[in-house]
Amino acid sequence: MNPSSGLGMTSLRARQRLIKRLQQMGVSDPRVLEVIRDTPRHLFLDEALASRAYEDTALPIGLGQTLSQPFVVARMTEVLLRDGVPDKVLEIGTGSGYQTAVLAQLVPQVYSVERISRLLERAREQLRDLGLHNVRLKYADGHHGWPRYAPFDAIIVTAAAAHVPPELLQQLAVGGRLVAPVGPAYSQQLEVYERRASGMHHYSLGGVSFVPLLEGLE
């Protein structure tokens, strides 16, 4: 049996329960819901935690990092797709690769930056095993984005900083949207920045809890 299909607590029934919960919490984009349902979240976790993969909760992936809560993944992804599918998306914080995998099934090109080499290599292997080949990965400090491929139509930041790094805002295309948690560790607001011809606009989507966006490489 294909390990991505899951058994028991990782089965389609468990996934359907998660989707129902996300809908009750306000996620409505059918494209996002379908991808969340079909993406094998349990494969991005250690086997000991696989039975909890389809709970709506963040889970540890080691090295002080977490696999984001499915609602937050869905909400952030939905925001990026709200006015059409962005062609080129930058992700800051590859982590396990789960958010990357979700994006890669919805947009043509994903560029993802990760500062922890062991996480990056695990994510690379998992994305390859899932046949997701429209992703470029980079081992680098996410504060600097990926200038070589800028500007990006959308940017998603999966760790929290006190302020959005200016270099990321500079790499956002006109008409583009950046979504990021902003504030102190584990107590932030999910902020959306939109670059319009008239300038940068931003608003908040409510409270979230993310690990901090750190500088340097590991």
Keywords:
disordered N terminus, Rossmann fold, 7-stranded mixed beta sheet, two-stranded antiparallel sheet, single chain, 6 helices, 27% strand, 218 residues, alpha/beta
Series of H and E elements:
HHEEHEHEHEEHEEE
Portion of residues within helices: 25-40%
Low-confidence stretches: 1-7
Give the CATH superfamily of the domain at 58-208.
Vaccinia Virus protein VP39
Percent in strands: 25-35%
What would CATH call the architecture of the domain at 58-208? 3-Layer(aba) Sandwich
Radius of gyration: 16 Å
Number of H- or I-type helical stretches? 6
* Category by helix and strand content: alpha/beta
Q: Can you identify the CATH class of the domain at 58-208?
A: Alpha Beta
Strand segment tally: 9
The CATH topology assignment of the domain at 58-208 is Rossmann fold
Order of strands across the main sheet: 5-4-3-6-7-8-9
Average pLDDT confidence is: 93
How far is it from the N-terminal to the C-terminal residue, by CA? Answer: 36 Å
Shape: globular
Largest sheet: 7 strands, mixed
Reconstruct the topology from this structure.
Layout: H1 12-24, H2 30-38, E1 59-62, E2 65-67, H3 70-81, E3 88-92, H4 98-104, E4 109-114, H5 117-129, E5 135-139, E6 152-157, H6 166-170, E7 172-182, E8 188-196, E9 199-208
Helix pairs in contact: 1-2
